[in-house]
Amino acid sequence: MIERVMVFIDGANLFHGCREYEPGYRINYNKLVDELVGDRKL
User: Fold this and answer.
1) What is the pLDDT of residue 21?
2) Which of 1, 12, 17, 18 could form a disulfide with 25 if both were Cys (CB 3.0 to 4.6 A apart)?
3) Cross-strand bridge partners of residue 41
4) Among 15, 16, 1, 2, which Cα is nearest to 32's?
5) How far apart, in Å, are the Cα atoms of 19 and each of 22, 24, 42?
6) Distances in Å between the alpha carbon of 40 and those of 6, 7, 35, 37?
7) CA-to-CA distance for 3 and 24, rounded, in angstroms?
């Protein structure tokens, strides 16, 4: 059976968290989603 997954990203929270971690940090959302999904179906 195929596993399915949905990804919801709280963009504001992620942005501000990354900004506190390292100013100017850029997020590659495609890579992030690929890592979260893995071999499951999006």
Assistant:
1) 87
2) 18
3) 4
4) 15
5) 5, 7, 28
6) 10, 11, 10, 6
7) 36
Largest distance between two CA atoms of the chain: 43
CB pairs under 8 A, 24+ apart, for 25-33? Answer: 33/7, 33/9
| pLDDT for res 25 | 87
The first and second tokens of residue 18, run together, are 């990354």
CA atoms within 13 A on the CB side of 27: 17
Q: Where are the domains of the chain?
A: 1-42
